[in-house]
Each structure stands twice: as C-alpha cells, then as structure tokens.
Amino acid sequence: MTSPIVHRLGETEIITLIDGHGRAPNGLFPAFDPARAEAAAAQSGEAYDGRTVNVPIQGFAIRRGADVTIVDAGAPDGYSDTTGAYLDSLAAAGIAPGDVTRLAMTHLHVDHVGQLARPDGSATFPNAELIHGAADWDHFTSDAVYARTKEGGRERASLDSSRRAIRPYAHQRRGVTGETEIAPGLTMVPLPGHTPGHCGIRVSDGTETLLIWGDTIHANAFQLALPEWGVLFDVDGEAAIATRKRLFDELATDHTPVLGPHVPTPGPWHVERAPLGFRLVPA
Ligand SMILES: [Zn+2]
Questions:
Q1: Cβ 231 vs Cβ 29: under 8 Å
Q2: What pLDDT does residue 215 have?
Q3: Ligand 1 centre from 88 Cα, in Å?
Q4: 23: β partners
Q5: How far is CA 274 from CA 207, 263, 271, in A?
Q6: Distance (Å, rounded) from C-alpha 23 to C-alpha 54?
Q7: What is the pLDDT of residues 29-77, one digit of tens each?
C-alpha cells in the first residue's frame, strides 16, 4: 500500500493521494522540439529519454479535524499500467469515502475525476458535494462538444469516462465562477485555459497559504523552463499558456508554495526564475 505524504499548514493537513507515476509520449506537447526539451529536462533535474516524459497523477485530501475535502480523484480503473493506487492511498490516509463532505475538482478531465464513481456507477463519496468551475460542467456535458469528438476515438472515450464519473453528483453539485471561498480557508481560484472552468484551490491557515494549481503543468521536465508549451488536451491553448506564464511570474515573486496533480512528489515547491524560464525548488 502506498504510504501517504502529509504536508502541514497550521492546523490543516494536506495529504497527497498518489494514483500512479506514468510516462506520456512527448507528442503530448504539440510544440515539442528535442533540443529544447533536453535542455529543459536538464535544468529540471528530470531524466530525458527522447520519447516519453514523467507525468505523475495524484489527488489531495485536505483535513481539518473531522472535516475532509478531496481535491481531484485520480484516473479511472484500467487507465494505465502504472495508475490505480488512488483508493488505496485514501485508505492509507485513514479516510473513509463516506466521511468526505466536499469534492473540489480542479477540472473534470478523466485523470482527475476517475474514482468519483464506483464500477456500478454509484457515487464513491455519497455524502459529498461536487464543486467545480461552472464552465467545466457546461463543457463536459455539452452535446455540441460531444458531437465534435470522433466515435471510437480517444477524446470520445475520455469524455464518456468523465461523464460517467460525474453523473452520480448531478443533484449534489455546485459550479463556481470567480474566486469563491468554499469552506473556511479553501478558495477556488479560476485558472482558465486547459479547460474553461479550470481552477486552482488556495489553502490558507492563519498566515500560511499554499496553492494546488491543477493542471498548470503536466510535465515538470518541460513546462517550467518552457511555459509556452501546452498539451494536446488544452481546450483553449492560448489561454492556458497566458495563465501559466502569469501564474509562474506571480509565484516566483510572492513565493507561495505549490502542489499539483502532475508535479513531482513530495513537494511542496516554490517556483523560481531560472536561466531557462522557471524551475521548481523544494519549498
Ligand atoms: Zn490532468
């Protein structure tokens, strides 16, 4: 069983729930260029193999006393050979799904909502409200968006999988627009681009603050040094790049520590200016 990684912020515990550590093909990045990729990876300290890049997948549990909020819920069963540990990580953290009252989703892509539903289609977290960027529900349930995906294609399968995972929460959900405090010290922060309703979750306790930045990056090896590299699945690639650049600049100035569904473990990290763009350093 994967042992939990626990970060403390005042009285708040942020527990990293590891789902797996996969490698994605470099073609995930449409702007991929071997020489630039190798230089970026060298600066990041991550291995470079010319074909694939490290993309960890994880969610988080934010615990204050008995109150538990989940941020992102891993990939669905069968997603890859190297994922599938999410519910074991949750159990290892001592959290029963029935004790979770809030599901704060950075966005509704399949590698973030995968374990929200059980194999029989029922809610894994029956007592929780699903909270998400309002524009994401509209996007992921849109008939027009669905019709633009190809039958039998990967995008269609991914959308089907997201829809199946969020369906049990259709009557226990809340879409937010703008910065929204969803519980004391927990704020949804819009970071649009990767998806229309993509959000970070800012966690505050006393004078301390940490940002779970959603899919601001997919690969530490490339995107800190090259923030202009987006991924195939960006719904609005230009907006995603603008959001990433703005956020890196802010974080390198105010030194807010970050965690994310695709950042290396354990973290948290600071964003620092570097010879090539930016880099992550342990906070
Ligand atoms: Zn993702």
A1: yes
A2: 98
A3: 20
A4: 54
A5: 28, 18, 9
A6: 4
A7: 999 999 999 999 999 999 999 999 999 999 999 999 999 999 999 999 9
218 C-alpha vs ligand 1 centroid, how far in Å?
Answer: 7
198 Cα–ligand 1 center, Å: 11
8 A C-beta contact, residue 55 and residue 22: yes
The reported pLDDT for the residue numbered 3 is 67
pLDDT in tens, 13-29: 999 999 998 899 999 99
Residue 227 CA to ligand 1 centre (angstroms): 16
CA of residue 214 to ligand 1 center, whole Å:
8
Strands (E), the chain: 5-9, 12-25, 52-64, 67-71, 100-104, 129-133, 173-176, 180-183, 186-190, 199-205, 208-212, 258-259, 269-273, 278-282
Q: Return d(Cα 125, Cα 251) in angstroms, integer.
A: 33
How far is the centre of ligand 1, averaged over its atoms, from the C-alpha of 24 (Å)? 11
Report CA(55)–ligand 1 centroid distance (Å): 9
pLDDT at 1 over 90: no
Instruction: Kindly give the distance from the C-alpha atom of residue 183 to the centroid of ligand 1, in angstroms, as a whole number.
Output: 24
How far, in Å, from the CA of 60 to the mean position of ligand 1? Answer: 13
Q: What is the pLDDT of residues 180-226, one digit of tens each?
A: 999 999 999 999 999 999 999 999 999 999 999 999 999 999 999 99
**159 C-alpha to ligand 1 centroid (Å):** 13
- pLDDT of 22 reads 86
Backbone phi, psi, residue 122, to 5°: -85, 165
Handedness of CA 252, 255, 259, 263 (dihedral sign): positive
Domain ranges of the chain: 5-282
Q: Which CATH superfamily is domain 5-282 in?
A: Ribonuclease Z/Hydroxyacylglutathione hydrolase-like (3.60.15.10)
